Amino acid sequence: xxxxxLPGHTEPGxxxxxxxxxxxxxxxxPGLRGNPVLARRLERELASRSKGVETAQADPQSGRLLIRxxxxxxxxxxxxxPEGPATRRRAAAPRRRxxxxxxxxxxxxxxxxxxxxxxxxxxxxxxxxxxAEARRRLRExxxxxxxxxxxxxxxxxxxxxxxxxxAALLLGxxxxxxxxxxxxxxxxxxxxxxxxxxxxxRIERKNEDLLASWQRxxxxxxxxxxxxxxxxxxxxxxxxxxxxxxxxxDTVPADARVIDAHRLSCDESMLTGESEPRPKSAAPVSPIxxxxxxxxxxxxxxxxxxGHGRAVVTATAxxxxxxxxxxxxxxxxxxxxxxxxxxxxxxxxxxxAGATAGGVALSLGVLRGRGLGxxxxxxxxLGVAAIPEGLPIVASSALVQSMQRMREKGMIVRxxxxxxxxxxxxxxxxxxxxxxxxxxxxxxxxxxxxxELAAAELRAxxxxxxxxxxxxxxxxxxxxxxxxxxxxxxxxxxxxxxxxRALVLAAHRAGLxxxxxxxxxxxxxxRERDGGTHYVVSLHDAPGGGALAFVKGAPEQVVAxxxxxxxxxxxxxxxxxLLARNDELAARGLRVLALAWRRLAAGEAVDLDGNYTLIGLxxxxxxxxxxxxxxxxxxxxxxxxxxxxxxxxxxxxxxxARDVGLAGETVDGSELAKLLRGDGPELRARLREVSVFARxxxxxxxxxxxxxxxxxxxxxxxxxxxNDAPALKAADVGIAVGRGASDVSRxxxxxxxxxxxxxxxxxxxxxxxxxxxxxxxxxxxxxxxxLAEIVLALGATAFARTHPFTALRLLWLNLLSDALPxxxxxxxxxxxxxxxxxxxxxxxxxxxxxxxxxxxxxxxVLAGIGAAGFALAGGLGAFNxxxxxVLGYSLACRxxxxxxxxxxxxxxxxxxxxxxxxxxLPPLRSALALPRLASLGELAAFGAxxxxxxxxxxxxxxxxxxxRGVECNQEDAx
Amino acid sequence: xxxxxxxxxxxxxAGVTTVLAGQYLxxxxxxxxxxxxxxxxxxxxxIAVFREDVDDVLAEAKARARQPRRPxxxxxxx
Lengths: 974, 78
Known about the structure:
The complex is a heterodimer of chains A (974) and B (78). With 974 residues, chain A is an alpha+beta fold. Chain B has one domain (5-77). Chain B contains two helices and no strands. At the A-B interface, helix 6 and helix 8 of A face helix 1 of B.
């Protein structure tokens, strides 16, 4: 194959035919098809710039170019054979590459280049890009967002609506009607299928649009250095050349080259499959290093496991490594959910019932010697009667309605059916941080050996740092902390670990200037915690020569490093008293840190492992949320067990549990591992007794959630951290809580809540219970009314000479008279006492065995009302009586007593109006083959039918209530 | 002309249905129309390519037919 580089066009053309005899070249030009502007430009450029070209004709329709040339044309020298795949790739995308290079893109081999080379290639500096340049690059390269799975094509969505068993039965019925020469009936049944499909299509499209808009809302932010200033920038607005700041817990927003790293390591398991975090550094690595060994690169979507650092963005959006992998993952289909499975099973049962009833009707007709046409008509009618054509509409509408209701309350449902699953939750697992506590560590007390000092009482004197114990303690805390601070004296914005931020903030409030301290005592060294070392050591230059060392960390180890405290040298009794004091503070749920210091004379050997002076103990706490206690009590009333899963210490977790009123045992990580190795009944019994799991790792959390599920619980996991993500994924319903929830946790969750309080989680559960109960009630209503139609139709086939229903009349009943009240039942607002009773058993189907028995009983009553109408006023009487009975029955099926609400009445009124229209409008009447209203009795049948169920079922219900003395939720419509 | 109520209802119903259903089914209509246009473009392109291929073959044949024939001995010497 030959290629030809064309003047004025970036991509080479492929020569499809070259005739030397005719001196003609036919060239296939990428991008020419449908582009007349390019066609004209190519013709012009070739005619003016290529020697020896006689004519050039570009056809935008075929996308090809015809060049006629003279002998010895220079154009022939430009014909080339492609050099190989790499050349072809370059040839295929030169425009994009140039765009990226113009904007400084340089992801190729960035891991193998030195930092300065990468910055130079990206046109960036260590101070970051200017705002104008960043905007320009964003315009040129587009947003740093990867499109999710593409929306299903509208045609596929539409076809999906008719690829199910009930639709197949209806289509079959339509064909049978056509065979029986009932073309009107056939068209109407077909119309019902189309109507169902159109409504389902509309709802599904609306859901997809809604979810797409929410996905946009879910975009996170990144801390970026632009023009020398740190600021939060939407991750979608990042461009190559931006300098991003990463710290432990962050999700990397784009592929980036490390500039500097402090104990920086990344969990890249989602990208490379390696479970251990990989250490990162600025040193370049081999150009041929595989992805997992590119220690100088951070990859989009991975998690910073420890430390902090800076990196320059090299690739964004679909050019990142993660986007390439995601592209493969998104081709997988989501598995069927339990809700969809239940709905499918119900559809299958009803279809089977319809087919059986149709078969029975056919047999009876043949046995009674009726003609094939009428018999076939009866069979079709029964098939139609069995299918609740309104069910898909009702179910989807209820779920969408709940989604919208939850959205108004700040709850984003990422999976439609999760709303229904929420209703059955029996255990809520919550990480205490943020859910029960405020997630803002605060210094609560300082103990310097002469009694407790509350944080609010602390006052520091910068002039007497080494004479005033409080000033010394706070200065030690500030100098020993690795916290980035921004802002002036009024507002301080801090970045760092929550403990260190709390200490620096307390010092700031007590009157110490962090920047002045750092200038006065420049840091020479910082030795971080490592393995068994649970303290941080920092070494600083002292103003008058020599050095100062500060230690901050676990009291047991810091006391061991110290030889004295502020009162004098240590003895064993003094050490024991200090450690007892530490235990006392920890038992109150405080996180305790010890502070110590020492001077090193100029020229003295630097030994940082002993001979310190203990300054005192600092007690920090993450305070309880104001509503935490009430929320835990409410969960207990709702039959939901609250379980705390935390990585925190046992004493801290126990203190929190005690404060919120959670009874039960506490188990820590090592005990949990043993517990999970136990077998079935013993494990289940233990899981029921334990309410606090302390010191648990992310893997432990997920294993525990799985164990709870295997024990038959429906588990909701609420969390916001990346360490919660595996458990969120493992739970029946994963709930990412709070606006600050990490991107990974939000991606793993089914529901995202704006608030992080436990109360918000319970509000979501209450919504789920409303949906669940409404759906069950609507399904029971539809099943009962359809059974009534089958019973009446079969009874008429067996015992009467004529038939009360045609297929069209039944279709009318199912689609309008039944579906509207069912929809009203599915959209009821709830009784407000959803959290005052236990959840439904996890395995309860839509229609249980006892529900079926009740449905058969009630269907018998409804069919009896229809039969009475048939006996007294003929076919029209039966139609009126059954429609009235169905509407009256819907009133008896409502969730709460008292008069129905306006929406219910509107829907009921709509059904009545439609029924009235079918009786008085001649075209409708003729389509439904209904005779003109001849007597008042026919109309009275509707009224009598409407009133009867209310009398029969409501009366029975009142009787039940009076006799039992309690209102039983399950007896609503029985 | 007599006012025929059923015809009025059918006409009115058709209008209302078009207005109400139109906005919901618009994406589907757009998708189907764009698929039809794509198909028409693809067919037109195929026809154009076929026409050009025929043109090329004829041009080649014509050029060969009209090429001055060189004597056999000259070809052999070459």
